[in-house]
Each structure stands twice: as C-alpha cells, then as structure tokens.
Amino acid sequence: MSKPIAKPVSAKSPAPSTRSRVKRVPDRGHYDRDTVHAVLDAGHVCHVAFSQDGQPVVIPTAYWREGDHLYIHGSTKSRMAMALAQGEPACVAVTLLDGLVLARSAFHHSMNYRSVVAFGRFEPVPDDHKMAALEAFTEKLAPGRWAEIRGPNKQEFKATMVLRLALSEASAKIRRGPPKDDAEDMAIPAWAGVLPFNTGFAAPEPDPLLAPGTPLPSYLKALTRR
What is the pTM (predicted TM-score) of this model? Predict the structure, then answer.
C-alpha cells in the first residue's frame, strides 16, 4: 500500500520569512502553497514545539488542515493547549519518510522524505466554528465517519480546545531520487539505490464488543485499499 505522493512542485516561490527559509541544501526547499498543503494532507501526526517556563517542549499530536490553517485539538487542561492559547510562539513540524537512500559511501547515505515546518502563534477556534472543525478532523481520519457516530455532547465540547495556526510562514523540504555518490566512489562494489518506505492501513480489527453482523463501512474498505 503506497502513500499519497506530493503534487508536482511548481516554480520556486520566495520564502515567506528569513526563519522559514531552507538553509541546508536550499534547492530542496519549496514555499508554494500547493506543495506545502500536499505534504500536510498526506500526514496525520505533527510535532509542536514551544517553551513553557523556560523549558523547551515538543509534543506529538494529531492535526488536520483547513484552507491556509493547520488545526490541532486537545483537552482544555493540557499544558500544550493552555500555553498555545495564550499566544506562546510555536513551531510545527511534519515529516513523511519515503525511503532509505543507500549510497556507496557512508557519508552520502540519506533518506527520501517530504516535510513541512511552520512558525507562528496558535489561536483558539471560537465555539461557533469548533464543532465544524471537529467534524473536519473526523472526516480527515475516515471520510464518511461523522455521519455514523455520536458527536460531542455539551460536556465533551466544553472540555475540548481547538487551535489553529496560520500557514503564512511555512516551508516544505523534499528529497527525491537516488544517492549522490562522488565520482571516485562509483567503482565500489556495494549495492546502491533506494529502499522505498510505504505505509498504509491494514485490515480493520473489530471491537470485541461489536454487535454481530455490523458491516464494515465502505469508507474503511477504501482506506485499506490505498
């Protein structure tokens, strides 16, 4: 099962800011909206970095994208949600591994990957949009799921915070292709190339308490065929 491939990269766009500019191997940097969005839409987990009481903190969490914003959610009592809701500066990273790049020299071993790094400050999503945002998150996980399940009740809704980060200061970095060996190493008799890394959903495992005869939804069948 193969993962979604990023859309073809368009002509180079300027970096939105100095800190979002890719400095190491700058030719791998991309700043156009389509490329950034394509990488984000192919992933499920991001890492959010922020500072709390002078201590650097990095938290992995689920995310989704709507338009030009990246969304996360969590308990209103979580330290990350409380810090970000107060406007703490943040950095978000998403990385998708596509393969191991095996070269003829140890130095030129690498990975093929797609990644996005975004800077900014999160803002709480107001209650009048929060339910729609939670629906969008559920549909990101499994399109068609929201219509079949119970939505958040009043207590659950109140206990959940949804935050969003504008993607106005985001960059993508992508590596594709074979190893880049030095000319003097080409005669080394070692296998060289790319070991592709593919991820996908396996066969669904029913809840042991699932009522007998409950059919597997078509959208889950579609997800396992990817």
Answer: 0.88
